[in-house]
């Protein structure tokens, strides 16, 4: 049965590469890149991340992810 994914978090270029080999990003899903190299790789694959995080200090994960998991 089909599953709708609302958000993806990619932590490395190799993470993106492995995912994209066997999956596709759901239309309308939010994409978070952890770090500039991951963001750059996503863009090279035709995916523009909605958010890029380079430093974990001060990040309010609940505020960031709530709209994505409770659309």
Q: How would you describe this structure to a colleague?
A:
This protein has 71 residues and is of the alpha/beta class. It contains three helices and three strands. α1 packs parallel to α2. The longest helix is centred in the N-terminal third of the chain and has 10 residues.
Offer a quick outline of the entry.
The protein is α/β, with parallel strands linked by helices and 71 residues long. The protein has three helices and three strands; from the N terminus they run βαβαβα.
Task: Describe how the helices and strands are arranged.
Blueprint: E1 7-10, H1 13-22, E2 30-34, H2 36-44, E3 51-53, H3 61-69
Parallel strand pairs: 1-2, 2-3
Helix pairs in contact: 1-2
What structural category characterises the helix and strand content? Answer: alpha/beta
- Span between termini: 21 Å
Can you write the helix and strand succession as a string? Answer: EHEHEH
The total count of strands amounts to 3
Give a quick account of the main beta sheet: strands, pairing sense, barrel closure: 3 strands, parallel
Task: Please state the CA-atom Rg, rounded to the nearest Å.
Answer: 12 Å
Average pLDDT: 86
* Strand order, sheet with most strands: 1-2-3
Helix content: 25-40%
Helical segment tally?
3
User: What would you call the shape?
Assistant: flat
Low-pLDDT runs: none
In percent, how much strand structure appears in the residues?
15-25%
């Amino acid at each position: 049965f089909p599953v709708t994914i609302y958000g993806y978090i990619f932590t490395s270029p190799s993470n993106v590469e492995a995912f994209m080999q066997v999956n596709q990003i759901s239309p309308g899903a939010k994409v978070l890149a952890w770090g500039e190299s991951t963001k750059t790789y996503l863009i090279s694959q035709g995916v523009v991340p909605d958010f890029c995080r380079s430093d974990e200090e001060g990040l309010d994960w609940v505020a960031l992810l709530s709209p994505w998991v409770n659309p």
